[in-house]
Amino acid sequence: MIKLVGILVVVLGFAFRANPLLVVVAAGLVTGFAAGMSFNAILAQFGALFVDSRYMTLPIILMLPVVGLLERHGLRERSEALIRRAGAATAGRVILLYTAVRQVSIALGVSIGGHAGAVRPLVAPMAEAAARVRAPELSDKDSQDIRAHAAAADNVGNFFGEDIFVAVGGILLMKGFFDGLGIEVGVWSMALWGIPTAIAAFVAMAWRARALDQRLSLRYPARKPGGDA
Amino acid sequence: MTLLTLERFYVLAGLMLGVIAVRIAADPRHGRRVGSAVFWGLLGVIFVAGRAIPPVVTGYILLVLVALAALGRVGTPSEETTSRDERLAHAQRLGNRVFWPALMIPATAVAGTLVLSRLHWGEVRLILPGNAAVVSVGLGAAVALLLAMRITRARAQAPAAEGSRLVQTVGWALILPQLLAALGGLFARAGVGETVAGIVAQVLPTQYPAVAVAAYCLGMALFTVCLGNAFAAFPVVTLGVGLPLIVHGHGGNPAIMAALGMLSGYCGTLLTPMAANFNVVPAMLLELDDRHAVIRAQAPVALAVLAVNALLMYACVYRF
Lengths: 229, 320
Description:
heterodimer; A: mainly alpha; B: globular
């Protein structure tokens, strides 16, 4: 039971909104101490695992200079101009379309999108611009809400598209796990059972996107009748 | 031999962090000049030297980074970007050409994953197939940058300034995902998972098939919320709850159980600040005031999908 003290630290730390970096290090230290490790051994473990997981941060660091350069030259403004020409576009529809693109491409084994490469420079500005066509006085709070939903669309599309493709992390990990135990489980049957959830996730995202549009159209009523949600 | 190893891209990223540190140090207008320069500089060292540094030294460097962040010594960017009017003028001048480099990133990712990982001249490979996804993104960023420089005819300093601005916009949260991955490793070493799985199996009335399914799906989600990673939760919860109760106890189908169990774990990923690379870093990147705004936006989806997973598993796992 004493080993769980690290989880307690994490829960309390996040609940009281302490600096997350501090919370993580504190949780690591108490967990390590509870398992009988020395201070230096815990730090060595942190150091080694941190170096091993550099791949998590690599894409975002390498992508930001080019994304910033394009933003400096009007990428977001151009995305907005493009979406203003599409009359049927709403924030929710832009976000839902992106969910579909993300989910289908991942399911086919290619990663198109991402928060740094697509959401910040393309999807979020398009969704915001679509909302501004109907609501020029869009508040900062609502535009943040739209951006948060665009980020959520990336995650939902990514997670619930991934496990349909057999050659990726999730399926391979499960296969390896069962192989290690000598249990015969096919990769295709696991991928197949990912499809209903993928559909459910898309439907749930469609519901959220619609709710977002409805919230916006209630808050910013159309000037002429028939302005649809 | 491999030409484009991951290690080369780590060096590139580390050098970029070094450039950011130097730019901050040389900028008297920066509000947190010393702390920020040291923070990004040290992170750059970890990226460049990586495995050459003894792990315990990296551990102490991490303590310095965390202390700087917790004491508020890592500041917001002072880099100037173009005004909205200038950007509109650029957008007018460049038209849709400004999209090309942005589309190069996914295009290279696709090409890299599908083609480049298969290229080799005898023993010399371009990319190791296992690294294809991450390396392709790095390669895509490099190709896109060259194209963007050509199209925009920007000065050579511009990408450095913009990269510095955006990296500092994300701020110290940039290292949170890696630190959490390290914490996950420590949890695993201390045997945290087995303890939790044991408690779940003991406390709940799992002689009922429906309870076993609920315990497994909720266990995967809760465990992922705590660890921030469904892949870390899967072996623990499946060994502790799934296999003994659903498969061996009630004769369930392991493929259905595993597929839906992992997806239940992903629902947990959507709900937790511990999955910082998906939930917290994007909030900073999109300049949201609330660090947890992305989690709030996706929580209804996560809970709905979790319910679907549990019901679907109960309906199918004992039948097929």
